[in-house]
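Working notes for the structural subgroup meeting. M.R. asked for a predicted model of this chain before we commit to crystallization trials. I am recording the input and output together here so anyone reviewing the notebook later can reproduce the run.

Input as submitted:
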Amino acid sequence: MVARGVAIHVVLQMWSSGAVASVQAPINYNPLLRGNFMANLKGLASIASELRVERTNLVNQVKGRRSNVNLRRRVFALTTLILMFSLQMNSERKKSEDTTASAQSFLGRWDLTLKTPRREYPSWLEITQEDGQLRARMVSRWGHARPLPKIELSNGRITFVSPKEEEDRKDDMVFEGKLSGKTLVGTTTGPDGAPWQWTGERAPSLKRKSAPKWGKPTQLFNGRDLSGWRMSDPGSTATWKIENGTLVSPGHGAELITDAKFEDFKLQIEFNCAPGSNSGVYLRGRYEVQIEDDPEPEGPSMRTGGVYGFLAPSPEQPRRPGEWQSYDITLVGRVVTVVQNGQTIIDKQEIPGITGGALDSHEALPAPIYLQGSEAGHVAFRNITITPAE
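Returned structure, recorded in token form:
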């Protein structure tokens, strides 16, 4: 037989890296060589099968590599996010710790002195921190203790705001300051915009190590004249008068101040508040025990028997305008007891700070007793006796 050459093309398609590979194998057909042909064909089939397996393995490897790359990318991105979050959290925590540590230097009670062109005014500030937020309450040049709407601490400087309604001016009173050693120093402005200086000293605790030993009682008013007393403004046209052995306040006039100064003491005093009138007894010239018959009474701590703006009388006694009443007051350090007409209405409570109208803010020093004459109406006083601690 004449051999015929037959070209058989065995095409094996492989997908590797996106390319098509063709394998062409020319095979000569000859009946005499049929066995060899079949063997060759089986061999090619085996090779093709192996190539398919290799292709599958290769595809799986490529997919595996891609999967591993994607996984590594995800892990890297997640690790980066965790690291960035941790750094941010640490930064915020450190910032919070720094702010807290910085705020610690400002927390507490401060006795302020405001220096104006006319005179120095006493004031008082208390700074606290609640849930990381600074809060403050203040006694300004007058009025009672009240919370402030704004207090901030930034870069070692403190800013707090006293509202214009409380300061009797057209704009808010903004205080700015910093620590200089153990003293607060700062500036604010007057109603005309002129700069005012202010300072603050830490308020003393005034805690006593032992109970006082009382000395001899002393009469502060002799019933005849103003011996042992002086008026805050000698030039005032509204002056204190002596009527029937009593001291009578002028109404919108001067304050009446003892020449003597006291630290811890027991004070007995009788008073008669005319209808619609207002006055007060200032202990050490800094803490007012209120006397009033106001047509529109203020809050509980601003009523008769209260330590103005701080301590409310309890139980509050009925108003008795035009009648004689009595106070028995004991002051030891900051701790005060007030007895009105034989009834204890404040029992050994701490006075946090000075009240509006104080003579000064130097709480650690002895100071006089004074009777308020700058409020409306007339209040009479008699039988004023003080027993100082030895």
